[in-house]
Amino acid sequence: MIETLNAHFVCVFTSNEDYDGATATVPKDERAELERIRHEGYDAKMSVGSVHVYLLSPDGKLRDSLHVAAAAEKDNLQQTLDRMVDRYKISAGRPVVTPVPLSGILHKAPPGGAVVHITARREGRGSWGEFPGENWPAFTGEEWTRFLAVPVGAKPEDKWTLDAALSRRILNHFHPQTEDCSDKDRNDLKVASLTAELQSDGSLRLSGRVTLMRAFYPGRKDLILTTASLAGFSSEGRFTLVTLDDARFGKEKFYAAAVWKKS
Amino acid sequence: MRWLTLIITAFFLLPAGTRGESLSPAEIEKRVSLSAPAATERRMDDIGWAKDIRDALRLAKEHKRPVFLFTHDGRMAAGRC
Prior knowledge:
The complex is a heterodimer.
Chain A: H1 2-8, E1 10-15, H2 16-19, H3 28-43, E2 52-56, E3 62-67, H4 68-71, H5 76-88, H6 102-106, E4 114-115, E5 117-122, E6 133-135, E7 138-139, H7 141-147, E8 159-161, H8 164-171, E9 188-198, E10 204-215, E11 223-235, E12 238-243, E13 248-249, E14 252-261
Antiparallel strand pairs in A: 2-3, 4-7, 5-6, 5-14, 8-9, 9-10, 10-11, 11-12, 11-13, 12-14, 13-14
Chain B: H1 2-13, H2 25-32, H3 53-63, E1 67-72
């Protein structure tokens, strides 16, 4: 499938939040192109919807479409792609856009700052558990230095509480995927605390706790209790924080981690 | 609210080892893989994506290739939703 896409197609994906309604951020002419494609689908009585595959001719006309559920069935999508390749007699070539890790181009640290990579997923797989949620909260250099600074005069085994607001910026993402996929701080954080203990080698041992309430669907009031004990360390340009075995999203076990490596 | 208070109180009564204070940095690093995406779960990174629809249409015309457009809710690149 990936080989077919790279060898024969120009690929593009869009987030509906960027194109529709109050959250739209893309320019008008970009939105107009998506609208035009959808209208061509309505006119041709093709499947049209928000989570869809659309296949356009080289001159940009809509030629086929699939709802994502249909695309995921058996080899429907591969067959649909193959029909397009046959129809336009496209010989295989190199990808017209060089593949790059998407996360790397979307999340860059401010100069001198840090971007923390947070991953979280349910223990069970299947719907909503098949892939982890990922977030990349960014910190300025001043914030990151302050976050992990050892208090003046601290001795091994001394403990202190890390900055609450900066801890919150990380722990706010310690929950598995939900239908609400916004980065916005919509959680009711009951507990979000991190404690550091200075080790004899100068590194920090971290411990903490997060307890948050989050709605599965945006705007709903049926909040899910998410709780976890935390352990981690900070040493030599590396920060790692993980949930422990008591982590629960509702009744289900989940895992989360926050990682930063000095580049 | 009472049950939430009980949960929070119970946590602080747990023995220290249960809270992960006995985990070594290597053991903590190992736990990262429990939530991090495997390479097989980031296969979308193996596809070359145009930056937007207008860019895709321009490239399609230039290279005489059809366009594969995937529209979705959420942030595929970020894995949220």
